Amino acid sequence: MDPTAIGVIGLGTMGIGIVQVFASAGYQVLATDSQAPACASANHRLAAALASRVQAGKLTETDSIAILSRVRVVDGPARMAPVALAIEAVVEDLPVKRAIFSALERVIAPDSILASNTSSLPIAQMAEGLACPGRLVGLHFFNPAPAMKLVELVAHADTAPWVLPQVRALMKPVGKTLIDCPDRPGFIVNRCARPFYGEALALLEEGRSAAAMDAAMLAAGYRLGPFSLIDLVGADINLAATEGLNRAMGGHPRYHVFAALRAQAASGNLGRKTGKGFVFPDQPGSPPGDADAIVLRIEATLANEAAWLLAEGGTTREGIDTAMKLGLNLPRGPFECLEAQGTDRIIAELARLEGAAPAHLRGRYLPAPELVPA
Ligand SMILES: NC(=O)c1ccc[n+]([C@@H]2O[C@H](COP(=O)([O-])OP(=O)(O)OC[C@H]3O[C@@H](n4cnc5c(N)ncnc54)[C@H](O)[C@@H]3O)[C@@H](O)[C@H]2O)c1
């Protein structure tokens, strides 16, 4: 095994970014994709991404050439024998990912590590059927991988004890913030982010305007309001993530799929990519008179979701706060919101919301045991 070699399988949006991340950190990268055009264009796409960094003065021409020289496109996972870590970023499909790992484990060394960039598939299920399930982890990069500081590191119940320290050591030169995550649906960020959108959508269905809510959150220090964030990512992508989590969590009302989101996705006004979204291309405007109440309601549900996740184990308050700040660009994490608003106020707000909840949302606001004083 060559400790300076990394394998990347799947060279789409995430894969090519992950190639850039490891090659920029000095690793030799062996890259592959099942589609010939993706392989053929990989070097060109990487060169274009590096050229824009050179143009912006963030990278020298010499470094750019050196990074490109470290990347070699190869003919499939079978050519990845030397790698210390092989990370897949192929389509979100369990059998496809399993087939890749079983091809990889036939060629890589016994002390090499397998990793998945999945956003939503359970790592434990991916490990089932492997000869050495203990060396598989989740390494969840965020989009765009070169720019986003956060990587969620997901162990499953049978991850071998030597694996996590070895992953951390391999990731050190990469300079990302690695946060330990439980192997639970949505890991940390994609799960704890749900109320940021969901509670805003609940307010929208109660008759508030998207622009007013975004303005309220901006006034409280958020860089983007919930609707501008949906517009950035795309209502279709947000809907798919919400539906996925709703299914994975057995349809619990904390993961309710709001009709307003379905309608937005169905309308085709998906956000920036279609030129029109909930708010885009307009600006949010000035905050409404009850901006503080809107912020309290959204932050109460963010803190509650984080406290429910914390109770499930495998993470910490600090881990959740850091992941949410880096992954969602929030000015403060859910537990920092709890601290700033005060636990009593948050519990009172949750009780008020639960009391007023329509039948289909009943149970959505029940406080996590962690929040309630013994
Ligand atoms: N796009 C995001 O914002 C994002 C963020 C975090 C994680 N992810 C996860 O990363 C993974 C990839 O997502 P993406 O957005 O880059 O997808 P993408 O569609 O842009 O790219 C997927 C690539 O995988 C290739 N591929 C498909 N089957 C293959 C196989 N059997 N062997 C080799 N290559 C194969 C495809 O040809 C394609 O180039 C998914 O698991 C996704 O959930 C995506």
UniProtKB/TrEMBL annotation:
Keyword Transmembrane: no
Pfam families: 3HCDH, 3HCDH_N
InterPro entries per UniProt: 3-OHacyl-CoA_DH_CS, 3-OHacyl-CoA_DH_NAD-bd, 3HC_DH_C, 6-PGluconate_DH-like_C_sf, NAD(P)-bd_dom_sf
SUPFAM superfamilies: 6-phosphogluconate dehydrogenase C-terminal domain-like, NAD(P)-binding Rossmann-fold domains
Limits of the 3-hydroxyacyl-CoA dehydrogenase C-terminal domain: 186-279, 294-345
Ranges of residues in domain 3-hydroxyacyl-CoA dehydrogenase NAD binding: 6-182
ATP-binding among keywords: no
Gene3D superfamilies linked to this entry: 1.10.1040.50, NAD(P)-binding Rossmann-like Domain
UniProt keywords, alphabetically: Oxidoreductase
Annotated protein name in UniProt: 3-hydroxybutyryl-CoA dehydrogenase
Organism of origin: Rhodobacter calidifons
